[in-house]
């Protein structure tokens, strides 16, 4: 899009050709293979991108546990490296069974010791969470059948999650805007680009927070797309200046 005449972005198109851009993107690497021992390769499944995410410390394609603050800023994350096909030994009912029993139904499995409860709660869809919080409360949900709001049981962990979920949800939403890695086959390149998007999103959230404190008119605040374009212009300008 940046190179097409009708939607041309000069700062990008004047810096490199489309073919050069694709060649650079396909060749991106953040780790020298020869510098990584065989032991490290066996112990770290993400060694090809590990240098990058280890230095960012800021998760979606590859699952990650994300720590976000109340101001929506992503503070830290841990990339999940375990198995992703382990449901054969699950002791919990599948979503279809819970859905037939109705909204508000949930079941728990407790690990001992130390005690960690895995809770599966049926809302519009089944919600699965792990926590050490035990009690339950109730919440109001719209009932299509009754055509009114109805009270349904809800695990406390779900209430706490909903209270503090804003940061991670905002980050996921912002990084999903203007996706550029959907058709890239190499997972390492997708990871690198994802971390770039995550860093840009974090920067915009900080900019938005500082702007609100400054007291300037909200209508003059840069939108996320304009912020990313300005960021790209600055990076290109610095590279051209040497």
TrEMBL record:
InterPro entries: PGBD. It holds the Pfam family DDE_Tnp_1_7. Residues 99-204 form the PiggyBac transposable element-derived protein domain. This is PiggyBac transposable element-derived protein 3-like protein. It comes from Lates japonicus (Japanese lates). The lineage of its organism: Eukaryota, Metazoa, Chordata, Craniata, Vertebrata.
């Amino acid at each position: 899009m940046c190179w097409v005449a009708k939607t041309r972005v000069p700062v990008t198109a004047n810096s490199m050709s489309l073919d050069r851009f694709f060649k650079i993107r396909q060749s991106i690497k953040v780790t020298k293979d020869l510098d990584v021992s065989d032991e490290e390769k066996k112990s770290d499944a993400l060694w090809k991108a590990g240098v990058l995410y280890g230095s960012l410390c800021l998760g979606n394609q590859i699952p990650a546990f994300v720590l976000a603050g109340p101001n929506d800023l992503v503070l830290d994350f841990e990339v999940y490296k375990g198995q992703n096909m382990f449901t054969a030994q699950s002791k919990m009912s599948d979503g279809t069974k819970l859905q037939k029993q109705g909204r508000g139904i949930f079941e728990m499995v407790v690990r001992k010791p130390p005690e960690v409860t895995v809770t599966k709660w049926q809302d519009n869809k089944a919600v699965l969470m792990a926590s050490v919080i035990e009690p339950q409360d109730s919440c109001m949900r719209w009932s299509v059948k009754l055509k009114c709001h109805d009270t349904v049981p809800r695990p406390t962990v779900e209430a706490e999650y909903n209270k503090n979920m804003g940061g991670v949800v905002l980050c996921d939403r912002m990084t999903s805007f203007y996706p550029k890695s959907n058709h890239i086959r190499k997972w390492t390149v997708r990871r690198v680009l994802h971390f770039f998007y995550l860093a840009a999103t974090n920067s915009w959230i900080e900019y938005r927070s500082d702007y609100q404190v400054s007291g300037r008119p909200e209508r003059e605040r840069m939108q996320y797309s304009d912020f990313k374009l300005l960021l790209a212009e600055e990076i290109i300008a610095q590279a051209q200046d040497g």
